[in-house]
């Protein structure tokens, strides 16, 4: 399952040259991740209410070309891997149907005390992995 959302770059996301500030791509990854989980019926708010937290333990971003103020971007995310208590989510940013940024985040699945736990069965079901 893959989710795609449109996002128009606001002025606040850019530097003095009108280019999207590099760290904002991690915010874009989070937007895609949030919408992915929501569309799968697992919004963060609900996961946290169940005592499931997903802290980021790794974040990688590959910059291919810039985005600028007022560009219309497509942000996408998909679960790439589920291994033990770790979840890897691949992310992409496209502009005019061209890949401009790719990367991923890895999340630990932990309880409210920070102890590793198995991911919810609904996440495993997205990858057709028996729970």
Which range does the strand content fall in? Answer: 35-45%
CATH architecture: Roll
Number of helices: 3
Mean pLDDT: 93
Q: Output the CATH topology.
A: Thiol Ester Dehydrase, Chain A
Radius of gyration: 15 Å
What is the CATH level 1 assignment? Alpha Beta
- Spatial strand arrangement across the major sheet: 1-3-4-5-2
Total discrete domains: 1
Distinctive features:
Thiol Ester Dehydrase, Chain A; 5-stranded antiparallel beta sheet; 131 residues; 3 helices
Put the structure in a nutshell.
This protein is an alpha+beta fold and 131 residues long. The chain contains 3 helices and 5 strands, in the order E-H-H-E-E-E-E-H. The chain is elongated.
Describe what this molecule looks like in 3D.
The chain is elongated and about 45 Å long. The model has no long low-confidence stretch (mean pLDDT 93). By secondary structure, the protein is an alpha+beta fold. The protein has a single domain (3-126), classed as Roll (Thiol Ester Dehydrase, Chain A), CATH 3.10.129.10. It has helices at 24-39, 44-49, 121-126; strands at residues 3-8, 56-63, 72-83, 86-95, 98-108. A five-stranded antiparallel beta sheet has the order 1-3-4-5-2.
Give the helix/strand layout.
Layout: E1 3-8, H1 24-39, H2 44-49, E2 56-63, E3 72-83, E4 86-95, E5 98-108, H3 121-126
Antiparallel strand pairs: 1-3, 2-5, 3-4, 4-5
């Amino acid at each position: 399952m893959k989710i795609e959302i449109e996002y128009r770059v606001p002025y606040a996301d850019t530097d003095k040259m009108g280019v999207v500030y590099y760290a904002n791509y991690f915010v874009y990854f989070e937007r895609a991740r949030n919408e992915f989980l929501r569309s799968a019926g697992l919004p963060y708010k609900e996961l946290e209410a169940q005592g499931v937290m997903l802290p980021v333990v790794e974040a990688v971003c590959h910059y291919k070309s810039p985005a600028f103020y007022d560009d219309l971007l497509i942000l996408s995310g998909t679960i790439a891997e589920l291994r033990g208590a770790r979840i890897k989510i691949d992310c992409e940013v496209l502009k005019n149907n061209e890949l401009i940024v790719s990367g991923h985040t890895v999340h630990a699945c932990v309880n409210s005390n920070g102890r590793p736990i198995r991911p919810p069965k609904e996440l495993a079901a997205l990858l057709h992995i028996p729970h």
